[in-house]
C-alpha cells in the first residue's frame, strides 16, 4: 500500500512562488505516473499537472500552463510542483496522486493513490 505525503503549501502573496513536494513510500515509485490536482471550496477537484513514469510526457491544466512545473526525482521517491506567478484563484488544497500505470492522465479516476493534501492560499 503506497503512502503519499504532500508538503510545501502555505500562504503567499499574488505573484509569489511555492514549491510543493510529494513523497511516496510503500511501493516502487519508478516507472509510475504521478499527478497533481487541486480543489477549492465548493468546487470539483481539478487537474493541475501530470508526469509519466519516465518523466518525458508532461501535461498541464490550462489554468496553470506556463506558470507551474511538475518534475520527479525517482531516487528520492518524490514528485514536485513548482508554482510561480501565483494568483488568488490558485488558492486550493493541492493533492498528489499516483497511477498504477506508466502513462499520465488528467482524470482523477485513473489515479489509485492520493495524499492528504496541502493548503495553498494566495492573497491579492
Short description:
The chain has 124 residues and is mostly beta strands. The protein contains no helices and eleven strands.
Shape: globular
Order of helices and strands: EEEEEEEEEEE
Q: Provide the residue-averaged pLDDT.
A: 95
The share of residues in helices is under 10%
Tell me the major beta sheet: 7 strands, mixed
User: Total helix count?
Assistant: 0
Rg, alpha carbons: 13 Å
The multimeric state of the shown protein is single chain
Class based on secondary structure composition and strand pairing? mainly beta
How much of the residues is beta strand, in percent? over 45%
Alpha carbon gap, first and last residue: 40 Å
List low-confidence stretches. none
Question: How many strand units?
Answer: 11
Describe the structure.
The protein has 124 residues and is mostly beta strands. 0% of the residues lie in helices and 50% in strands. It contains no helices and eleven strands. The chain has strands at residues 3-7, 10-13, 18-25, 34-39, 46-51, 58-60, 68-73, 78-83, 92-99, 111-114, 118-123. Strands 2, 4, 5, 6, 9, 10 and 11 form a seven-stranded mixed beta sheet that branches. Strand 7 (68-73) and strand 8 (78-83) form a beta hairpin. It is globular. The mean pLDDT is 95.
Amino acid at each position: 500500500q503506497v503512502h503519499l505525503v504532500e508538503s510545501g503549501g502555505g500562504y503567499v502573496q499574488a505573484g509569489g512562488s511555492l514549491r510543493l513536494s510529494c513523497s511516496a513510500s510503500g511501493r516502487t515509485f519508478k516507472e509510475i505516473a504521478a499527478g497533481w490536482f487541486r480543489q477549492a471550496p465548493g468546487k470539483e477537484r481539478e487537474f493541475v499537472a501530470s508526469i509519466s513514469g519516465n518523466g518525458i510526457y508532461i501535461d498541464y491544466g490550462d489554468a496553470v500552463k506556463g506558470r507551474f512545473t511538475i518534475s520527479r526525482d525517482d531516487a528520492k521517491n518524490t514528485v514536485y510542483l513548482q508554482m510561480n506567478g501565483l494568483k488568488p484563484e490558485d488558492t486550493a488544497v493541492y493533492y498528489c496522486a499516483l497511477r498504477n500505470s506508466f502513462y499520465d492522465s488528467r482524470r482523477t479516476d485513473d489515479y489509485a493513490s492520493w495524499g492528504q493534501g496541502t493548503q495553498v492560499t494566495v492573497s491579492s
